[in-house]
């Protein structure tokens, strides 16, 4: 299915309205910074794991070996490629170590791999197999961030980084994949049996919890943007903004889409690559830069500029990509 530019733009409207809502709620005081920690705990430990599990469990497509092996591999390689390309560009434009070089490469190399692509794929493709493939793909991204990314950002790889891989979303993904293999498919259970009704009740509960994940995450993103823009010390460096947008929203999409077209990969994974190619930088690098001795100021500039510009570039890249990938 090929959606037109207008259809793709309309599909993005709820995403950016939630972000705008978070921005406004913070500005008028309805959502204060004290509440962020509680919402983040629920998000990381309950809502997002429930969302992941609901897309993985009872997903017949994910019983295929090719959708279990290639997606995480592609996720790892695309993030690592992003780091490498962004690092070269940072060197070429004169950024230096200790003055934003590593943070620029880290932030520009990471695309938003969760809360924008999930609703966009759902809206455009209505495919549990494709969204499930995205979830498996994201496991490779987590691996790349907590290994190659930490090494790039901090200059060393601490033993604690491995522990970050075993977080509630990853545990939910692994549990979902295991149970997806072990538990009989919905069509193989007696409809009125206690076991079938029990599974339906659990699955329905997880689905409802999972539906909270995306709105809350996007509202928190909007609130965070308000905090960052409201910082009087924030000044934008045209070089960081221009080249950050160039790497994240122009150069890397070309490379990712070329790979999606040329490589013999499952169609669901090609769609995931197409959507991810169009994404802005994720918000997570801002926190990582603070924690691992990077330059939060550089990360903020890249994240905010690519997020705002992506309102225009996402429909363009997805429209172009669909003509080649479908």
Describe this structure in words.
The structure is a single chain. The protein has 326 residues and is mainly alpha-helical. It has helices spanning 5-28, 33-56, 66-92, 101-109, 117-125, 128-154, 160-165, 168-182, 194-210, 213-229, 238-262, 267-277, 284-291, 296-325. α2 packs parallel to α8 (168-182), α3 runs parallel beside α6 (128-154) and α3 (66-92) runs antiparallel to α11. It is globular and about 65 Å long. The termini are close together. The model has no long low-confidence stretch (mean pLDDT 86).
What can be said about this structure in brief?
The chain is mainly α. It is built from 14 helices and no strands.
Topology (SSEs and partners):
Elements: H1 5-28, H2 33-56, H3 66-92, H4 101-109, H5 117-125, H6 128-154, H7 160-165, H8 168-182, H9 194-210, H10 213-229, H11 238-262, H12 267-277, H13 284-291, H14 296-325
List keywords for this structure.
mainly alpha; 14 helices; 0% strand
Structural class: mainly alpha
* Terminal CA distance: 6 Å
The count of strands amounts to 0
> Residue ranges: pLDDT <50 for 5 or more in a row?
none
Q: Average pLDDT, to the nearest integer?
A: 86
Instruction: Determine the fraction of residues in helical runs and give it as a percent range.
Output: over 70%
Q: For the CA atoms, what is the radius of gyration?
A: 20 Å
> Shape, please?
globular
Q: How many H/I helical runs?
A: 14
Query: N-to-C SSE series?
Result: HHHHHHHHHHHHHH
């Amino acid at each position: 299915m090929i959606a037109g530019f207008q259809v793709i733009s309309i599909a993005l409207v709820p995403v950016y309205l939630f972000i705008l809502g978070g921005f406004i709620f913070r500005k008028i005081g309805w959502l204060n910074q004290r509440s962020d920690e509680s919402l983040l705990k629920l998000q990381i430990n309950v809502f997002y794991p429930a969302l992941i599990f609901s897309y993985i469990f009872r997903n017949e497509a994910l019983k295929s070996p090719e959708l279990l092996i290639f997606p995480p591999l592609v996720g790892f390689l695309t993030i690592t490629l992003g780091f490498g390309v962004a690092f070269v560009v940072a060197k070429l434009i004169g950024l230096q170590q200790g003055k934003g070089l590593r943070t620029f490469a880290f932030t520009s190399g990471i695309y938003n791999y969760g809360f924008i692509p999930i609703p966009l794929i759902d809206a455009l493709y209505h495919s549990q197999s494709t969204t499930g493939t995205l979830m498996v793909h994201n496991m490779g991204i987590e691996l790349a961030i907590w290994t190659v990314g930490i090494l790039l950002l901090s200059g060393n790889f601490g033993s604690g980084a491995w522990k970050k891989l075993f977080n509630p979303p990853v545990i939910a993904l692994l549990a979902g994949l295991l149970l997806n293999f072990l538990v009989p498919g919905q069509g193989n259970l007696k409809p009125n049996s206690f076991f079938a009704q029990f599974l339906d009740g659990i699955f329905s509960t997880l689905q409802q919890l999972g539906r909270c994940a995306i709105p809350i995450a996007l509202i928190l993103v909007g609130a965070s943007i308000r905090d960052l823009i409201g910082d009087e010390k924030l000044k934008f460096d045209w070089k960081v903004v221009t080249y950050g947008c160039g790497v994240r929203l122009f150069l890397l999409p070309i490379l990712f889409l070329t790979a999606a077209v040329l490589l013999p990969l499952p169609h669901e994974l090609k769609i995931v690559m197409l959507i991810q190619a169009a994404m802005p930088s994720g918000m997570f690098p801002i926190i990582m830069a603070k924690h691992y001795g990077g330059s939060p100021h550089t990360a903020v500039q890249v994240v905010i500029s690519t997020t705002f510009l992506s309102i225009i570039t996402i429909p363009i890249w997805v429209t172009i990509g669909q003509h080649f990938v479908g």
